[in-house]
Amino acid sequence: MRPKSVDNVNARFLNDFAEMIYLRLDNSGRILEANNFAKATLQPNPVGLNFSEIFVAFTQTIDPLQAAQNEMTHVPASVNTCADLPRTFFFSFFKVTEGVDVYGEASGTEVLTLQKTLIETNNELSNMTRQLQKNNSELQKLNDIKNQFLGMAAHDLRNPIGAIIAYSDFVMDEAKSLTDEQKEFLSIIKNSSNYMLKLLDDLLDFSKIEAGKLGLDLSRCDYVNFVKRVVKLNSAIAAKKHIQIILNVHEVIPELDFDSIKIEQVLNNILSNALKYSLRNTTVVVNMFMSGDFVTVEVRDQGVGIPKDKIDLIFQPFTRVSKQGTEGERSTGLGLAIVRRIVLGHRGRIWVESSEGEGSTFYFTLPVVAKE
């Protein structure tokens, strides 16, 4: 039975609800109207195009006007559609006043195939999600075991390393008959032991942080005097390389709530890196200033700088700017990773600006908030 023209059917049904292509053509085959389903299905929007432009291939050459005059129905055609929609439609052609009405129904077989494919894909995604959750759980367990092992190993090794350092000091102080070569050997033993002890301390801190045990003990402190004290302690170390540390406080800084031990660890690490990678007879400048609701500490050195390919990795564990400092100082590669976690734990930020050969500037902020 011939469908009625769009003029005689419910236009709202064709536009809003029908899963059927409807096109109104003029006698030359140009598309004058298209329902919403046709616009959503055919690529590109068919209005204004010639009827022959929207199809990949008909099973036979089709002249819409001739097909309408012959009242051809159920003519299969492959349609340029979105990737997820059926491509085969069956078309019927009907002559109307000064034009042609075209109706296209999707292939039932392709619809069923598409539904089956979607169900299978959804099942695969569900299975992959479950497997991913299982893998994440197993990885978390392995990570917990790794952190536990690092913590236990670092803790158990600290005592014998400490004993090596103590006996090295004792021998160097008491054995006056040692040759210069023997003293040099003892010095190497002591320096290597100190490096190992620092590495063990960093491993302990890192394993605790990784296990979610940062444990901040916040208390109200005079932040300016705190920074002055830490800078003074590092100035003695800087003097050995004839490096001057200058502290500038640019405005009134309020008291802050922070963990003084942890923030001292942050500032010591940043300053020690500045000294480690700076040349002799240079200057390290520390600036303190307000940044909205935060206090910013800036540490600017005149050192070797950070390679461009390392800047994005500098706060990742076991990343080193270089193997050694300007006078052979070594780094564990964990310090800045620990520092970053501490600053983030205080709800602050930390970042670096640097150019290789031109020095580095580290910034970290702490919020101006009440303890509670």
From TrEMBL:
It comes from the Bacteria. This is histidine kinase. SUPFAM superfamilies: ATPase domain of HSP90 chaperone/DNA topoisomerase II/histidine kinase, Homodimeric domain of signal transducing histidine kinase. Residues 152-370 form the Histidine kinase domain. Its EC number is 2.7.13.3. It catalyses: ATP + protein L-histidine = ADP + protein N-phospho-L-histidine. One of its GO terms (molecular function) is phosphorelay sensor kinase activity. Residues 111-145 form a coiled coil. InterPro entries: HATPase_C_sf, HATPase_dom, His_kinase_dom, HisK_dim/P_dom, HisK_dim/P_sf, Sensor_HK_Regulatory, Sig_transdc_His_kin-like_C. Keywords: Coiled coil, Kinase, Phosphoprotein, Transferase, Two-component regulatory system. It holds the Pfam family HisKA. The keyword Phosphoprotein applies.
